[in-house]
Amino acid sequence: MTLSPKLRNRITIFMMLFPTFLLLIAFYVYPTLYNLQLSFTDITLLQLRQGGDPVGLSNYIEFLTSNSFFDIALNTVFWLTAVTVALRLFLGLCFAILLNSRFLAEIRMTTIARLILLVPWATPPVVAVIAWRWLFDPRHGPINDLLLTTGLIDDPVAFMSNLTTVWPAIVTIVVWNTTPLVAVSLLAALQTVPEDLHEAAEIDGATRWQQFRFITLPFLTPTISVLALMSVIWTFNNFVYVWLATSAGPGTYTNVLATEVYIRAFIDLRLGYSAAIGVTMAVVMAVFGALYFRYFGLTEMQDKVG
Amino acid sequence: MKTTLTRLMASAAILTITSMAASADVELTFRFNDSEREEMRAALDEFEAANPGITVELQTIAWGDSRDQFLREAAVGQGPDVVHIAFVWTQEMAEAGILRSIEELEGYQPLPNGFDDFIATELTEYEGQHWGLPWSADTWAMVYRTDVLAEAGISDLPTTWDELLADSRTIVENTDSVGFSFPAGNQIWFPVNYFLWSNGQEFISADGNGGYELGASADEVATAMEYFSTYIEEGLVSESILSIDVPHDPALMQALLDGDQAMALMPTNTFRQLLAAYEETHPGEDIPLQSGVMMAGSQAPQTHLGGRTLVVNANSDHPEEAWRLVQYLAAAPLFENYYVNQFPAQRSLLSQIDYRPEESGFSTQLAEHTRTWGAYASSGAGVGQMWNVTARAFGTALSGQSSASDTAADLLEELERMIAN
């Protein structure tokens, strides 16, 4: 029996991909399914040896109907994700345009400016949060010193404990630490915009804003779309910034889904309940990703750009 | 050929002897969570010298991570041989099946003064056996900067929660310092319980029928929340204390050292570290720090009898040697020479402690005004979990995120669920 070339090709491809499938099953599919299984039990960290009892959907029901669910969801979706991603994209675009400008080149500051921009990105989040906590410190922090010296405030502000200032403070840390990645990515995209398009537009009398709106932005849109998607997923699931900055406090005021997962699993020791929150987060992100591709399909955007 | 064979045989013999020697050595791991790492390493060096063939690796981990780290490791057959845990974790870890019982370990070598010499042994009991050796004992008491009190015109130390609040107002009014400040984050659990206990309440009580019930009403818990909120609302302390989890936080310690704060509450070892820091920065000067008994409410003041336990991991391959290490760590010389900021959890050793004059408050508190966690521990609700939900609830109320009455009701609902489970 001889195999057709097409079938042989398929078998070869399958055999070459098989080890990767095995790795994916071992390190992704199995943990995911195990987490799903845990979410239907009442297992705690104290019962790891004995295992938990099945509780059906009660973990999901308890979480989705809890008094804190709305606050946690709002914190995660609005403050942690929407605000920081929007600011990151806006500031990243501004920095990218600045770094690509003739002005910086004329004063021979392009390289230095690009290096400076990379410093926050190269700073590990742990270090960034600790540094910013010190900057925000009410007793010894330079920000309070500056505000007091200039007379803008009469008493020190406890930025990380005050309900009015705590979220803006966290947003500041996230944006400071992550905007450079967006800026550098957009800078790379900016450099692919053909210069002759701008020249032609200039000859046709287009203003700078019109050039940006109708030439630059369409070229940047695919990059912005990918950055937005990645930033949303990465930020939505992020634990580090909130936990290190405030431990979800004061009280539970800055609690987000990722910190709730940690609190429930490793402080309250309720692994099953925590797994249910994790599954909920995964479902939300999967739905978001699907909708995002449905309405902002990257292929279509590539087509539009040409 | 013959020479080669001889060399091979000789090499094999050397390898065999070497591996036998290696297998005779026992390597223990001791996980220790306090800050006295260097002192503990020196103590372990002494243990190793006295016990040839046993080496001890010292691991340190933050208290905040130690409980779940050990639970995770032990569940999969791993973890250190000897572990330093809080009194109140012993029962839950015994229930998890990750500890060896004291009764089993005493089979290797009995304790010199017997297990009854140790305090708070009921906190280590689970299903008729004991699962940890109480190692160090502590409680919290009040600490004062006497010079700041004098500057504010306060001659007598406060004795009730109301007096504490009134004195705080006086200090803020008459000096540049704050009066009473406290960690309002995770460890607000302690002052909150002292407040409730001194008013005849507690979060969980025995119901008299072998079961457990809530020991405080929502109004009573809300009153406690409002009491501590008052300090922040009136500006008697900075609201930054909401981010302070522990009494040894540098912000609190430095404020006491500098005289920017007049009154605090803390455990014994923190006070000893404070005294040492003051002496180091003010050599030869009188120490303006004094300890005092905790505040009273409608009843006498009470604080918890707390401390640390040493446990042997059920997965240890060397339980006999691990037990030998535990016995060494619990002996008097360790507390005299190395672990000097801590009090031993043994009656025979506690009675020998020479308190400094500044520590008289702690001495009285420990001798006359302490209680164990009692029903909190025996109810099975889990002191650790109770502690965490309570701290979060108080943070919610103190920050103004939610009203005291709503938060208190939510907290009690959660505690009820924990009792039921």
Task: Please explain how this structure is put together.
- The complex is a heterodimer of chains A (306) and B (421).
- By secondary structure, chain A is mainly α.
- Chain A has helices at 5-38, 58-64, 69-99, 102-106, 110-122, 125-136, 142-149, 166-190, 195-203, 208-236, 240-246, 257-267, 271-295, 298-305.
- Chain A has one domain: MetI-like fold.
- Chain A is flat, with a radius of gyration of 25 Å.
- Chain B is α/β, with parallel strands linked by helices.
- Chain B has 2 domains: 26-138 and 306-350, D-Maltodextrin-Binding Protein, domain 2 (3-Layer(aba) Sandwich); 140-304 and 367-420, Periplasmic binding protein-like II (D-Maltodextrin-Binding Protein, domain 2, 3-Layer(aba) Sandwich), CATH 3.40.190.10.
- In chain B, 47% of the residues lie in helices and 16% in strands.
- Chain B contains 18 helices and 16 strands.
- Chain B has helices spanning 2-24, 37-50, 63-75, 90-95, 102-105, 146-151, 161-174, 189-197, 218-233, 250-258, 268-281, 319-330, 332-337, 347-350, 360-368, 375-378, 383-398, 404-420; strands at 26-32, 54-60, 82-86, 125-126, 129-130, 133-138, 140-145, 178-180, 204-206, 212-214, 261-267, 289-292, 303-304, 306-312, 343-344, 370-371.
- In chain B, the strands form 5 sheets. In chain B, strands 2-1-3-14-6-15 form a 6-stranded mixed β-sheet. A 4-stranded mixed β-sheet of chain B has the order 8-11-7-12. Chain B has a two-stranded antiparallel ribbon with strand order 4-5.
- The longest helix of chain B is centred in the N-terminal third of the chain and has 23 residues, at 2-24.
- The relative contact order of chain B is 0.17.
- Residues 15-23 of chain B have low confidence and may be disordered.
- Chains A and B meet through helix 12 of A and helix 3, helix 4 and helix 17 of B.
